[in-house]
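Summary of Year 1 activities. Much of the first year was spent building the evaluation harness for sequence design. The harness presents a backbone, in tokenized form, and records the residue chosen at every position. We chose the following record to illustrate the format because it has been used consistently in internal testing since the harness was completed.
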């Protein structure tokens, strides 16, 4: 049922995804308890569906609950906790609470850099999101500095993926799309368009 809800999310059938995930969440609470990892995962997915439907306040409230529970159960430095922290930061950003989003993303970036390294895909994603927070706050110098780092690291990461996985692998194409977004953020729209065309043609 949870997988079907995720499929609805992927197909942008958001109302159906949300309705099904509500059922999943209630059943998991009843069978597994409110603090079980599967229950928290369902709660996080439901929060994402709220966000996709523009119900950002509900998304933030639910994601805050998930974060507190994951901190209690897994600790502040667990990767699932950091993922939830990043999702909550996205909710703050959607609500235009940019200072709160920046603070959370800064914490996540610091911890991910320590745990995963600065070249890891999740670290680079957070770095890009933090750059967006700086941009939202009008701190354009910091935005450019961070996006330059992200751009260079994504280039390096893409070359490694091409060698190991091949140019047509889904992970390679995902990195290519992220790199295109980095080019766009740096104002290099021609290069961004070229990369996006490659991804689309794959």
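For this record, the design step produced the sequence shown next.
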């Amino acid at each position: 049922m949870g997988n079907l809800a995720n499929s609805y999310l992927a197909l942008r059938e958001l109302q159906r995804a949300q309705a099904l995930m509500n059922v999943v969440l209630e059943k998991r609470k009843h069978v597994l308890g409110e603090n079980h990892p599967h229950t928290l995962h369902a709660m996080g997915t439901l929060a994402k569906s709220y966000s996709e439907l523009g119900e950002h306040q509900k998304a933030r409230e639910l994601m805050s609950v998930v974060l507190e529970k994951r901190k209690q159960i897994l600790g502040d430095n667990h990767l699932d906790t950091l993922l939830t922290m990043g999702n909550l930061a996205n909710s703050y950003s959607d609500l235009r609470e940019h200072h709160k989003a920046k603070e959370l993303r800064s914490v996540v970036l610091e911890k991910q850099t320590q745990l995963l390294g600065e070249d890891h895909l999740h670290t680079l994603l957070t770095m890009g999101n933090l750059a967006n927070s700086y941009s939202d706050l009008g701190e354009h110098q910091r935005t450019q500095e961070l996006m330059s780092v992200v751009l260079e690291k994504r280039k390096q990461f893409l070359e490694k993926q091409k060698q190991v996985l091949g140019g047509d692998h889904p992970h390679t194409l995902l990195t290519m799309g992220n790199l295109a977004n980095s080019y766009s953020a740096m104002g290099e729209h021609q290069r961004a368009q070229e990369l996006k065309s490659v991804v689309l043609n794959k």
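The chain has two domains: 1-95, 99-202. Quantitative recovery figures across the full test set are reported in Table 2.
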